[in-house]
Amino acid sequence: MKMMFRILARYSSDFVDVDVCSFDVSASGSESVLSNNVSEDSSVSFDENDYLRCYKPKEAKRYCSKGWENYIKSKDQKFQGGVEEFRLKLHMYAIEMGFEYKYVRNIKKRVIAYCSKRESEHCGWCVNASLLEYNRFFVITDLVNEHSCHGVVCLQTNKMMGSKIIKSIMFDKVRENPNNKAIDIYHEIKSDYGMDVSYRTAWYGKERARESVLGGDADSYAQLVWFGQKAVESNSGSTIKIDYEPETRRFERMFECYDAWMKGFQFCRPIMFIDATFISNKYRGQLIGASSKDANQSTF
Length: 300
Known about the structure:
Elements: H1 2-10, H2 25-28, H3 48-52, E1 78-79, H4 82-97, E2 101-106, E3 110-115, H5 118-121, E4 126-131, E5 138-144, H6 163-176, H7 182-193, H8 199-214, H9 217-222, H10 224-234, E6 239-244, E7 251-257, H11 259-265, E8 273-278, E9 286-291
C-alpha cells in the first residue's frame, strides 16, 4: 500500500489501476517487484491522507428535521403554546426518531401517549403531560424516553407528516411570499427535510399557513357588510350594495362604486369597456370591472 502511494506522489496522479495476479516471489526475486524508477528508499514525500480523502464516503446530508429529536427531552419540560404545541412537537419528535405512538388519553388538559408496540413487544416508552392552570403552559409530568422495541427506524414516507406539520415549518416562508405554489413546497419538503409527502398534503399545509397569515376566505366574506358601511361613511356619495339569499344569508354578489370614480367617468369618452376575471379561491366567482378612455388616451 505504501508503495502505491509513492507511485501516486511521484507521477502526480489521483488514481492507479491495480492488477492482482499470482507469481513466484522466490523465482523472480523480491527486487523485481519494485519499480526501477521508484524504490522504498525514494525521497518523494507524501501524505497518505491526501489520497485517502479522495475516496472517503461523503458525509450524510443534515436535514432540517434533525433538531426535532430535541423536542421531547425530559420531565418538567414546558410548552408555552399549550396542548396544541405539545401535540405538534410530539408528532415531529416521533417522525425524527422513527416510531409511532398511541394516545391513551387526549384532552385539552391532559395527554398520555405510549409507544404503539407497547402490547406486542412490551416497549416502555411513554409520556404524560398536563396543563398548568396558572400560566396555561403544558408541562411533561412523566417521561420514559427509552425504547425496548425493535425496528425503530426513520422512514422517508411517514403518515404522521401531515398538513399541520407542513403549516408549522412553512409558516414564515408563506408569510414572506403568500403566493408560494404547493409544488414548490412539495419539493422543498423533500430536499430540506428528506420526507416524501403527497401533493395534496403539501397543498393543504400551504393553505393552512396562508390562512394563519392572511385569514380565511370565509372570514373575509363575513366582513363585507362591515366593510361596505365603513367605506360609505368615509367616502360620501359612494354606492356599495351587497346581495345575499334572505333565508340562508349566503353571499351572492356585490356592487362597488366610489364617488370619485363616478365623477371621473363624466370626463371620459362616451364609451365603456367591461372585462371580467375569474376568482380562483374555493368559492370561485368572477370579478367584473368597468373602464373607459379619457382625453389623454389613458385608461380610466
